[in-house]
Amino acid sequence: MAKKEPGYFLIHYRDPQEGKIVALKAKRIEDSNLGLSFVRVADFIFDTSSVLVQPTEVQLQQKLENVKGLHLSIYSIVSVEELGGPSGKGSSLKFKKNKSNLISFPSDQNPPVK
């Protein structure tokens, strides 16, 4: 039986400096200590065994060379895909604080719909 590769995440986000959509592979996504509207992406994965060189991936690897964790605003994240890993046993996203029960109060700018 073939050995299953460990799971990882493919994160698409908008780079705040260049405004382009960037694809980044990482082993971990977790709560950020910067606050509720940030997530921390860590343990980046770059394909170094391929003969084909992708300039965008090489640039991203050089940019993140000394970065331990990338704190992304949830507003800049376009999508997160969970890939690889054994089926049914993936390392799904698990956050320390459940943010799904946040309540948004109406503001003067957004009157309640009647």
The helix content, as a percent range, equals: under 10%
Given as residue ranges, the uncertain stretches (5+ residues, pLDDT < 50) are none
Shape: globular
What's the end-to-end separation, in Å? 59 Å
Q: Radius of gyration in whole Å, from Cα?
A: 17 Å
- Mean pLDDT equals 80
Q: What's the order of the H and E elements?
A: EEEHEE
Q: By helix and strand content, what is the structural category?
A: mainly beta
Structure, explained:
8% of the residues are buried. A hairpin with a 6-residue loop joins strand 1 and strand 2 (21-31). The chain has a five-stranded antiparallel sheet, with no helix packed on it. The chain has one helix at 55-63, and strands at 8-14, 21-31, 38-45, 69-73, 77-83. Helix content is 8%, strand content 33%. It is built from one helix and five strands; from the N terminus they run βββαββ. The longest helix is centred in the middle third of the chain and has 9 residues, at 55-63. The radius of gyration is 17 Å and the shape is globular. The chain has 114 residues and is mostly beta strands.
